[in-house]
Amino acid sequence: MVREQYTTTTQGTSLERPENQCVYNIGIYGWRKRCLYLFVLLLLIVLVVNFALTIWILKVMWFSPTGMGHLHVTKEGLRLEGESEFLFPLYAKEINSRVDSSLLLQSTHNVTVNARNSDGEVTGRLNVGPKMVEVQGQQFQINSVDGKPLFTVDENEVVVGTDKLRITGPEGAIFEHSVETPLVRAEAFKSLRLESPTRSLSMDAPKGINIKAQAGNIEALSQMDIKLHSSEGVLLLDAETVRLPKLPEGTNGGSNRSQELYEICVCPDGKLYLSAAHPYSTCQEYSHVCQ
Question: Is 52 strand, coil or helix?
Answer without folding.
Answer: helix
